[in-house]
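Re-running RecJ OB domain-containing protein to confirm reproducibility after the cluster update. Everything else is unchanged from the original entry.
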Amino acid sequence: MVTAARAQIKATGQKDNPILYAFGEDWGTGILGLIASRLKEEFFKPVLAMGMNGGTITGSGRSVPGFNMIETLKTMPEYFHKFGGHPQACGFSLKNKDLLEDFKKTLLVKAADGTKNIDLTPQIKIDAIVNLEEVDWKLYDLLQKFEPFGMANEEPLYGATNLTVIAVEPVGKDGVHLRILIKHNSHVVRKTIAFGFGNTDKHPSNWRELKPGTRIDLAFNVSVNEWNGNRELQLVVQDIRHPLFL
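Result of re-run:
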């Protein structure tokens, strides 16, 4: 359903809008928050995911820092049967399904005003910038002492800059994942896996076309790849960009 919501946003030309909407006739109330959260993380914009439940349009919203979702909804109570939430999340039901398009247009105007001073460029928080030579079994063993990771104990996210691409190999069905071989300041080649980065709908930069010798920056988690009794460290890519400085 997240895939369908993402495709809907693209098909309806919303990607440059200050707030994004997705609607599914069969999206139950219990999954709307998940859809909104995933899309908010991907696009780094406020998102409303909505569905038809018992003849009533219900919705769940997720916001970004700086845009107060619930205070914005409070300025337009005429649309709601009920609503509630806090600055970063909301839930609501519309008085009438025929109000949907007018509601979306009104909220779009309010979101444009409410986000005009906010940087909506997708952002991630790096815990530490490292040299790849520092990513070793000693570091991995140390990280294991802090498991389990989750919402209240997020897995450390590392960054490495100015890496050299050695090779790129699409893997998985339709090549939606990428295995990228890289090196840093030494001749040691490291393996990474970039899940979903071969999907040009999700990643329009088309990282499949990376050429050997290209320089990139990576954000990644440290993991282990095990096969046939073998174990090797693996970098799980969370983001890629071209270097700000060469």
